[in-house]
Amino acid sequence: MRIGIVAGESSGDLLGAGLIEAIRKQVPDAEFEGIAGPHMIDAGCRSLYPSEKLSIMGLVDALAHYRELRGIRAQLRNHFIAQKLDVIVGIDVPDFNLGLLEHCHAAGIPTVQYVSPQVWAWRRYRVKKIARSVDRVLTLFPFEAAFYEEHQVPVTFVGHPFADQIALATDKVAARTRLGLPVDVPLVAILPGSRVSEVRHLAKAFIETASWCHERNPEIRFIVPLANQVVREIFLQHCEQLDIELPMTIFDGEAREVMAAADTVLMSSGTATLEAMLLKRPMVVAYRFAWLNYLILRLWVHIEHFSLPNLLAGESLVPEYVQHAAQPEVLGRHLLDYLQSPQHVQPLVERFTAIHHSLRQNTDQRAAEAVLEVVGQAARRRVTERPDEKR
Fold first, then answer.
1. Residues 317, 319, 323, CA angle at the centre, nearest 5°?
2. Beta partners for 4?
């Protein structure tokens, strides 16, 4: 069996590696080739192009690299079609993958999109392209699967790998001990985002929120995991400009461990909110956009909530604030309430635990079974459509 597989982001690389290993358990001689990151390569995938080529952020970067990306997609399409692969799996990066999958699907190769684009939230018209491009969509969340079922697109909910990786109960004291943090003081984790644009828009509001809380409770300590050196410099520049001194410990990465050590979390919207929920940590979520992006999104976005815990719950479990609604005193009041009123936290932990169970689906195995099912269905169709050779 020969499988084409294309992933760009580091998260897609991890999903791809898990998928490759799970398929190999059922089909030991399966071969994989496409665009792969280091984890997929270690799992045995032959990479035809560096995965960094697909790690393009924002409209400006995408336009700047448009011709190169278009050329890579055309060469990859021609290669996959010429090789007559058994199936092609696109992992995330939908703007690149859906065009590739559409051409390969039209050429008769079975196709799978692993990780749904946020078509349920905005640009819903894309569901028509998805329907004609793939034989199956594999979704990480149940509300995404419900959307595709409503639009009659073949779909399999496979769960989220984080739910498999993170224990149902997390030891806060053990996490603090590993990080060298005090075990007997209130700790607030601050996660302003992993991207430069996120930190630039949120750092000031988050630092001012921390100051607001500390003025009212001087025992609070703050722990801040920052994704890389660039993000760290931007965050520290905001601290200097605001001339605010806080009892703050900064970590290079280690976001999951830092959240596990915290009593509550102030954070940017994104995948980290899912991790905080799986760690059972109460959180306050905020997001700010460039003003033009915000105006566009207001016209196009079709959802009531934007943080993953609220999307998964279908209701407002955690406070979330966007744009200028994310003010220090508003965010701070929620953080202090979590710290001072444990009775408000326990029901939240119970809901988080129920959602954790629902997402714990043995993702790699379920995804592998779905891909192999698509291959099997295609093989049966070919047998049915083949003329009777005896005649």
1. 140
2. 33, 88
DSSP string, 235-288: HHHHHHHHT----EEEEES-HHHHHHH-SEEEEESSHHHHHHHHTT--EEEEE-
Q: How confident is the model at residue 243 (pLDDT cuts 50, 70, 90)?
A: confident
pLDDT of residue 58: 44
DSSP structural state of residue 43? T
Which residues of 140-269 form beta strands (DSSP E)? 155-157, 187-191, 221-226, 248-252, 264-268
* Count of beta carbons in the 10 Å neighbourhood of residue 217: 14
Please state, in angstroms and rounded to a whole number, the distance separating the CA atoms of residues 373 and 335.
47
Provide CATH code, domain 2-159+361-385: 3.40.50.2000
Q: Which of 41, 30, 144 is nearest to 94 (CA)?
A: 144
With residues binned 3-state (H G I as helix, E B as strand, rest as coil), the percentages for the chain, rounded to 5, are 55, 15, 30
Region 120-132: mean pLDDT is 79
Q: What is the mean pLDDT of residues 120-134?
A: 82
Q: What residues does each domain of the chain span?
A: 2-159+361-385, 165-359
User: Same CATH topology for 2-159+361-385 and 165-359?
Assistant: yes
CA dihedral 334, 335, 336, 342 (to 10 degrees): 90
CA distance 187 to 191: 13
Look up the pTM and report it: 0.87
Architecture of domain 165-359: 3-Layer(aba) Sandwich (3.40)
